[in-house]
TrEMBL record:
<feature type="signal peptide">
    <location>
        <begin position="1"/>
        <end position="17"/>
    </location>
</feature>
<dbReference type="InterPro" id="IPR023296">
    <property type="entry name" value="Glyco_hydro_beta-prop_sf"/>
</dbReference>
<keyword id="KW-0378">Hydrolase</keyword>
<comment type="similarity">
    <text>Belongs to the glycosyl hydrolase 43 family.</text>
</comment>
<dbReference type="InterPro" id="IPR052176">
    <property type="entry name" value="Glycosyl_Hydrlase_43_Enz"/>
</dbReference>
<keyword id="KW-0326">Glycosidase</keyword>
<dbReference type="Pfam" id="PF04616">
    <property type="entry name" value="Glyco_hydro_43"/>
</dbReference>
<keyword id="KW-0624">Polysaccharide degradation</keyword>
<keyword id="KW-0858">Xylan degradation</keyword>
<keyword id="KW-0119">Carbohydrate metabolism</keyword>
<dbReference type="GO" id="GO:0016787">
    <property type="term" value="F:hydrolase activity"/>
</dbReference>
<protein>
    <submittedName>
        <fullName>Glycoside hydrolase family 43 protein</fullName>
    </submittedName>
</protein>
<keyword id="KW-0732">Signal</keyword>
<dbReference type="InterPro" id="IPR006710">
    <property type="entry name" value="Glyco_hydro_43"/>
</dbReference>
Amino acid sequence: IAFKFLLIVAFSFNFHSGFSQNPIIKDFFTADPAPIVYNNTVYLYTSHDTASVTSKNYEMKDWLVFSSTDMVNWEYQGAPVSPKTFSWATGDAYAAHCTERDGKFYFYVSTFHKEDENSKGGAAIGVAVSDSPTGPFVDAIGKALVVNEMTKDNKHGWDDIDPAVFIDDDGQAYIYWGNGSLKWAKLRDNMIEMDGPINYLNPENFIEGPWVYKRKDLYYLLYASKGEKAEQIDYAIATSPEGPWEHKGVIMESVPNSFTVHPGVVSYKGKDYFFYHNGVLPTGGSYRRSICIDYMYYNEDGTIQKVIQTEE
Ligand code: FUB
């Protein structure tokens, strides 16, 4: 009996140490992690890959929510938002980001506009709102917050995807987004209107997937950047959310079995966590991705140590 007890203790210790749980969600293919902490719980908003094993295109029909209080067990909370939430939207559900302000949850999405009097179709950013982190969410403005302009040769541009919102300590909110070049603008306190012009930046090797946050006195901009064969994660530091941003290098190398990678960061119960996706689940790949978490560590001067990817 004593031996059996020892075995059980040894097994449970092994099971709960570190992130040998990666990928953290195994019942769905998930990508583009957007975690927030609210009421001592981590809510994780994700894209949802449903492409077939042989597909060479995204098929992404809705956004999912999971919650956890231990960063190991993730409870599925449903799919409260999809492009159908927005009467003007059609097509895939790309990266999203949810943020809380004054008890309301604003869910910024990257999707596509129907062809109508406001758009010739193309990438667009919308915002849905709810009183709860898990929904139900409704379209907050009844139209897109950002609609992509067609390129000069009348093609759809890709530069209006991947919104990320940051609220500074003084209450000023900012939205960052982009593909190819990074755009940002101030948001009004209502979180659904821009406050001022759209600004353009060209962070080194920037591709997409910005994520902005503050730690101590420094602002951090993380993004998917151009690696040798696939995307990797670079970061830059500033003393203001408006920049100027100082490029600091790569914090995560390309991931196994996925061309894209996408950052998300939270501090929870005294530890810093880096969320990303790869394609390592059985039958996974660039269009069937899976979210993982690893610890992140800062140096004394605020720079970030390279994140070590852990697998099962
Ligand atoms: O998930 C679709 C797209 O792939 C996202 O919008 C990008 O960030 C990349 O992860």
